[in-house]
Design a protein that fits this description.
Strand order of the largest sheet: 1-2-3-4-5-10-9
Number of strands: 25
Strand content: 25-35%
Radius of gyration: 26 Å
Helix content: 25-40%
Shape: globular
Structural class: alpha+beta
Distance between the termini: 38 Å
Length: 528
């Protein structure tokens, strides 16, 4: 590795990353370097081959942070670095096309030193969603089976004297490290959430959260529900709070588990997959201190034995069904103490041992008021379907083979998935052919388009083998967000459309299963 200095390309290998950490950080507590270690670890996994280290003297966010530090400390030495990790191997002596570079991360590390202590922290790190760039195929592939629901494109600019300035975009989620001076736990989490929701290009820093709250810079923001809801409201959002550590909600979870074998992650899943940014608040150790981590997405293990085996071998589970969250093994989070894109086991949500990651509550930020809970909606719909199936056992295998199978498939549970969908994206999905290459007629598509609201709860019902094997669904139900009222129901070979508060049946030429609802996204996963 060449010697490290400002404004020149550094060739990377796995051994050089620790030297970069030592070069760019003061000799501070090793714990404080963990997020930087995590960043370097991700760069190694993603195949970063080059690094550019710059003085971020023109970065408005950096200058804002430096001013805050100077106001907090009477005497302080501050050294910031801006790091650009690049996928391509760049030489300081050979020409290259700056417009063809693949930027994997844009990060700023702040070093500050007083007479009493020295410290280093990541002011921000916007790192691309983890993926491996394939040199010959010229396209990235997922590192793991991650599903990201709360992210956006962030714009940055890069400059060097040889090639000039260029703008680039990173699709990811901003990370902010707690430093106990200008950034604390709650501010970091809210900054991550509000940046993903914001339409502005400028980054919202943790210290900006204090301004929104109306408290002095550098003062820790202890969790106050009303103030937090006020901040979200000022940013044009609404909060949906899911309580976990309350006597009545504990009883609700117990009943859901006993009746339907639902884990707490099933309560979270519809909000998360709908794309709403959120965070988990939990207690740590044996104190009453609360810690906050933003939720970004989830991982999926379609090879898991437990979801199907549990309900097959257990007795007394009502309605004989499984939510798709049963195959979710982790939530993807940021932790301001450890770094970005970490896996938080869903089992921790149901931890009951006091002082050991006891979840207090989970909060999601929505664009609209949504009052009707998706878990209640899903259970109600499954109950109605089971009744309908009992009343339609006369359906023959020859006339409607897939409806016959879903009615008579008693050895496997139904699988359900609920999330908020939007009208135009749903219509795109409905226009696609089913597994037998049949499509819904233009006349019925026109009727569906006419009755659908702009946003709605979408519940998809299928069988385990269809969900696991090829992510397809047999039944699709559209319900109003705040009443749960059913608007449109699609089954193999028939559908029901609500017109003037009445259900009207229509025959369909589609008699098989469809691909599950997909939101518009360029984020590839192993499943697709």
């Amino acid at each position: 590795m060449t010697s490290l200095s400002l404004n020149q390309w550094v060739s990377l290998d796995s051994a050089s990353l620790f030297k970069i950490i030592d070069h760019c950080t003061f000799k501070s507590d090793l714990l404080n370097k963990r997020p930087f270690h995590r960043l370097c670890s991700l760069m190694r996994k993603m195949g970063a081959q080059s690094l550019w280290i710059a003085n971020p003297d023109t970065d408005a966010a950096v200058n804002y942070e430096i001013d805050c530090l100077k106001k907090h400390f009477k005497s302080v030495e501050i050294t910031p670095y801006k790091l650009f990790f690049i996928q391509e191997k760049i030489s300081n002596h050979k020409p290259f096309d700056i417009g063809q570079l693949t930027f994997l991360s844009c990060s700023v590390i702040i070093n500050h030193s007083t007479l009493k202590r020295s410290d280093s922290y990541l002011l921000y790190s916007v790192t691309a969603i983890p993926k491996k760039y394939q040199k010959f195929k010229k396209k990235p592939k997922p590192l793991m089976n991650y599903y990201f629901h709360s992210f956006k494109n962030y714009k940055f600019s890069f400059f060097n004297s040889d090639s000039g300035e260029t703008e680039f975009t990173i699709s990811g989620v901003p990370f902010f490290q707690k430093n106990n001076v200008t950034s604390f736990c709650m501010q970091s989490a809210l900054a991550t959430i509000l940046n993903n929701k914001s339409t502005k290009e400028e980054l919202i820093l943790p210290n900006h959260i204090n301004e929104i709250y109306g408290i002095p810079k550098g003062q820790e923001l202890e969790f106050d529900k009303n103030k937090t809801l006020n901040v979200i409201s000022k940013q044009g959002g609404y909060a949906k709070e899911l309580l976990f550590n309350q006597k009545d909600t504990k009883e609700i979870f117990r009943k859901l588990h006993n009746k339907f074998d639902w884990p707490p992650s099933s309560i979270i899943y519809p909000w998360m997959e709908s794309g709403f940014p959120g965070f988990i608040i939990f207690s740590t150790r044996q104190s009453n201190a609360l810690h906050v981590v933003p939720i970004i997405g989830h991982t999926l293990n379609t090879d898991s034995w437990q979801p199907e085996a549990d309900i097959r071998y257990k007795k007394g589970i009502r309605f004989h069904f499984r939510p798709v969250s049963a195959w979710v093994d982790n939530l993807i989070i940021h932790d301001d103490n450890f770094g970005m894109y970490l896996c938080y086991p869903t089992s921790k949500l149901s931890e009951k041992k006091k002082g050991n990651y006891l979840t207090d509550h989970v909060l999601f930020v929505t664009e609209d008021v949504i009052n009707f809970p998706p878990d209640k909606l899903e259970i109600n719909l499954i109950s109605s379907l089971r009744t309908m199936f009992e009343n339609n056992k006369h359906v023959t295998k020859e006339k409607n083979p897939w409806l016959y199978r879903i009615i008579h498939e008693l050895n496997a549970p139904l699988v359900s998935r609920t999330l908020v969908a939007n009208k135009e994206n749903y219509i795109k999905n409905v226009k696609k052919a089913d597994s037998e290459k049949n499509r819904i007629s233009k006349e019925i598509l026109s009727l569906i388009h006419k009755v659908l609201p702009e946003k709605f709860w979408l519940t998809e019902i299928t069988l385990p083998d269809l969900y696991i094997a090829n992510k397809s669904t047999l039944i699709s139900i559209v319900s109003e967000l705040n009443t749960g009222k059913e608007i449109f129901l699609r089954f193999p070979k028939l559908c029901y459309i609500t017109i003037d508060d009445k259900y009207y049946p229509f025959e369909l030429s589609t008699g098989s299963h469809f691909q599950i609802y997909l939101k518009d996204s360029d984020i590839e996963t192993f499943e697709w």
